[in-house]
Amino acid sequence: MSGPTGDPGARTAPTSRAGRNLPAALAVGFGLGLSLIAILLFVPKVFIGVVGVAVGVATWEVAKRLREADVLVPRIPLIVGGQAVFWLGWPYGSNGVVGAFAATVLVCMVWRLFDHGLQVAPRNFLRDTAIAVFTLAWIPLLASFSTLLLLEPNGNLRVLTFMILVVCSDVGGYVAGVLFGKHPMVPSISPKKSWEGFCGSLVFSVIGGLLTVTLLLRANSMIGVVLGIGLVLVATCGDLIESQVKRELGIKDMGTLLPGHGGIMDRLDSMLPSAFVSWLVLSTLL
Predict the structure, then answer these.
(1) Phi, psi (5° rounding) for residue 181?
(2) How far apart are the two ends of the chain, measured CA to CA in Å?
(3) In angstroms, how far is CA 241 from the centroid of its own chain?
(4) 235 vs 242: CA distance, rounded Å
(5) β-strand 190-194 against 184-186: which pairing, if any?
(6) Which of 254-258, 265-269, 276-280 is least confident?
């Protein structure tokens, strides 16, 4: 069988049904997962720094892709202000997050208004500033809830719980989708996502929620059921949101930093809304 160059001895890397290099994706996924587990168990505050770097890179990836599509979001205020939104949750809690978010929105508006000087009116000002605010909310604002979750009692175990459930959702969806997927869920946005995969995500995540909330958090198992269902819903929506953004931009991935996965943002799409829902559910019910 010929490889990509026509050489009978050439071989291509095994790919998944999603078109990914499966061995590379698994290696990167396991490596990242084990590293984050070790950090959360032994040096939990380092997790804030790791996520802060990921937020900065993801914001840069999205801003770069947007500007390639002639959407001139103000990159410097987005990246710097996004770091403020994320980091100020550590010393100041939700007040720091909200204050930094509002200040960054104002700076983005003014920056885009005058980025071509005082003599030239900006083109597509409303569109570009609206998308900048969307990006700010989509990445650093949602990511800040992982910090708020970490700072609560047994916060490292709460963060570990939400991360395990997102992985359960991904694995369950992939396995069920590959084995049984026949009915497309939202074919106009993500043709490979199926209702069978969604059901697999739901089963895996609910089981994962029951186990992690009971064994890690020592709490009522029904909280795990609520959390499991909630995370499947928002993780699926987070994945679909990024798929639609990439579809409108005409790209496959936001970046190329992670072999087999794409960019940092391609790994955070389901994690970001899940961090918020995990904070909301666990801070309310525990």
Answers:
(1) -60, 115
(2) 58
(3) 10
(4) 11
(5) antiparallel
(6) 254-258
